[in-house]
Amino acid sequence: MSIYVFRAAKIRFTYKNLNGSLIEYIETFLCCIFKRKDACKRFYKTTSLTQTINSLVGKPLTIRQRNLIGGALSPKLLITKCSSNLHNLLILDANSIKTCWIELRPKGIIAHFVNLLNKYMFIAPYYNLDIKKQTAGEYTLALKHNYINVLVSGKSQDFMEKLIQQKLIQPTKKPEDF
């Protein structure tokens, strides 16, 4: 599974200021290159990033589909434990509570979490996703060697049951295996 790393790129701009003189400046922006990493750092929406995510987990559900299943986003879930790679991203901000929310897609899930104003995504197709119930109200979402333990209660419990039902409907093999 391909996940993404971002690198900085520079673009040179020229424009006229109010008194008519040309000003040249270099703006640094972030562009996407594809590598194998554990979480995708998402700065802004790019077509290549969107296309790759859509190929892995499908396009976002339509409004009609979301209404039929009762919603595609979970409430905020408390992260109790995670793999070391994801933990290194989360410990950068020691003052914040570690939370995430999960988005259902037709072929997988995206777990979103924010740290120090950076947005990260944990992308997991259903055929690679393992869902385990650890204790009462605690679930593990595992993708090969990466995992997130989340604490659920109330409405989030209903969402986890919906997620398990969606996973049961989906095939367990990669699309290339058919």
UniProtKB/TrEMBL annotation:
Protein name: Uncharacterized protein
